[in-house]
Design a protein that fits this description.
heterodimer; A: 148 residues; mainly alpha; three-stranded antiparallel β-sheet; 7 helices; B: 153 residues; alpha+beta; Jelly Rolls; five-stranded antiparallel β-sheet; four-stranded antiparallel β-sheet
Chain lengths: 148, 153
């Protein structure tokens, strides 16, 4: 029963080799998910996609597997960051602000961000729209990948 | 005094009322927007707290990376954790930065009987930092493979 509850809480579980193994993506599948997501997203002008997804496929000699959605999450973040940087560089850009609001349609917002944290994106974009760049700037500095 | 027909009087009264309603509406909108702004921005300053989390390890000792973004919402935060239940082979867990997928803080190891022991991943974590959890069973092939616990951030 405890195992069933744990599986329900993480959204992972199922089979890879042993009966208990979770349904993870290997590194190639994680990259595949990342690049499928890039095809759905338009970066801000002047940005291009990295050659690979950010997280390594092994660590200390052990393979790394990924919960489904990790590739989408990381592509969505790169996309969001391109528009955040665009807006910070050109604060009058209503196009960039409108693009930032479309984060609500992404897996990053709907799937990877816990429900009680989604307001953090709403707040930083709202404040940007009111002329306060601080929270968006902080998010970019702390959490955005370097542009490729 | 200029005499107005009752129907005209009613129109005048309606005009005044409408004007007052508009003024009240404008005031209410301004006050409401102020309150809403205060509420929205108060919500940003959420305190750190214990957050339940759980997972299932690969039986062969491979790492598993969670999709969930964890948001630090407190300045100078400490990220720490304890387990309620552990895999049979113990748990190794670490934090990855959202910006580059690189580890930050310490890798923590919990023995299979080390439940209820709090260990610290990182201190002085900046407000707004986003991270993911990555974990594995320390000594592979020891069931059970599931675990759960609480993470403070």
């Amino acid at each position: 029963m405890a195992a069933l509850l744990a599986v329900a809480a993480t959204g992972c579980g199922g089979h890879r080799g042993a009966a208990s193994d979770p349904h993870g993506l290997n590194w190639k599948q994680y990259n595949g998910e990342y690049f499928r997501e890039t095809h759905k997203l338009q970066l801000a002008p002047g940005f291009r996609w990295p050659a690979r997804a950010p997280i390594a496929g092994s660590y200390q000699g052990a393979a790394v597997y990924f919960e489904a959605g990790s590739g989408k999450r990381d592509a969505d973040r790169y996309w969001f960051c391109s528009w955040a940087r665009r807006w910070l560089g050109d604060r009058g850009s209503s196009v960039a602000l409108r693009k930032l609001w479309t984060i609500k349609r992404t897996f990053l917002y709907q799937g990877a961000t816990l429900p009680h944290d989604r307001h953090l994106y709403d707040d930083e974009i709202t404040r940007a729209g009111l002329g306060d760049a601080g929270p968006l700037q902080n998010d970019v500095q702390l959490n955005c990948p370097k542009p490729a | 005094m200029h005499w107005l027909h009752p129907s005209r009087l009613r129109e005048r009264h309606d005009e005044v009322s409408t004007h007052k309603r508009r003024r009240f509406s404008r005031r209410f909108t301004v006050v409401g927007a102020g309150l809403l702004t205060a509420l929205v921005f108060t919500a940003v300053a959420a305190a750190a707290q214990w957050n339940y989390y759980s997972g299932v390890c690969y039986s062969d000792g491979s790492w598993f990376t969670s999709t969930n973004d964890r948001h630090v919402t407190t300045p100078n935060d400490t990220i720490k954790t304890y387990l309620n239940s552990s895999p049979g082979g113990g748990l190794t867990i670490r934090l990855l930065n959202a910006n580059n997928g690189q580890q930050f803080g310490s890798t923590l190891q919990f023995g299979s009987t080390q439940t209820g022991v709090t260990k610290i991943f990182a201190t002085g974590v900046l407000n707004g930092t986003v991270f993911h959890n990555q974990f594995r069973e320390t000594n592979a092939h020891n069931s059970p493979y599931s675990w759960d616990g609480q993470e403070w951030y």
